[in-house]
Description:
The complex is a heterodimer. Chain A is an all-beta fold. Chain A has strands spanning 4-7, 10-13, 19-25, 32-38, 44-51, 57-58, 67-73, 76-81, 90-97, 105-107, 111-115. In chain B, strand 7 and strand 8 (71-76) form a beta hairpin. At the A-B interface, strand 5, strand 9 and strand 10 of A face strand 4, strand 5 and strand 10 of B.
Amino acid sequence: xxxxxxxxxxxxxxxxxxxxxxxxxxxxxxxxxxxxxxxxxxxxxxxxxxxxxxxxxxxxxxxxxxxxxxxxxxxxxxxxxxxxxxxxxxxxxxxxxxxxxxxxxxxxxxxxxxxx
Amino acid sequence: xxxxxxxxxxxxxxxxxxxxxxxxxxxxxxxxxxxxxxxxxxxxxxxxxxxxxxxxxxxxxxxxxxxxxxxxxxxxxxxxxxxxxxxxxxxxxxxxxxxxxxxxxxxxxxxx
Lengths: 116, 112
């Protein structure tokens, strides 16, 4: 299957700082990338959908000014958590697709963010 | 009520047992049904997908979808310790930009 990478895999930051997480599709061009967050023992919650070259579509309740998403190329999307707070600590996972069916999404390994 | 309900477990079974994992859902627009396996601190890995109702088998795994009951199942035969993981069901409609709606996941432990 297709490979999706995320960087960093784990990051600790201080409250009030910003953190950028990268999601890359390594062997295919991803026209659509999805960003999820997952709390311990809970499901993946979709935060936003980004299509290459256009603005991201955020899910209800997700602050677009706090979670900045950029999908500037067909292989790279970034999520920036601005002015992070301890409640933003979570596991962030991206997935990448290429206009195929919904099951043709490939997930990255996730990034664990801890805000102190 | 959540759109997708899944018992979080944990579910503990002996090696070699048949495991049954289930999800129910409320949105009749769902057409694609997926099962993902997620190891601790890793991203989900697609195990199987089914379109509409019916059964699908792949090795030790069988997926079943009953749209009339809004109920899906994943069966694992001859379970192995390496099957120990969290299993997530996910669903989507044919529109909506391929958005997936996930269950909470069932934590499975297969013991020697």
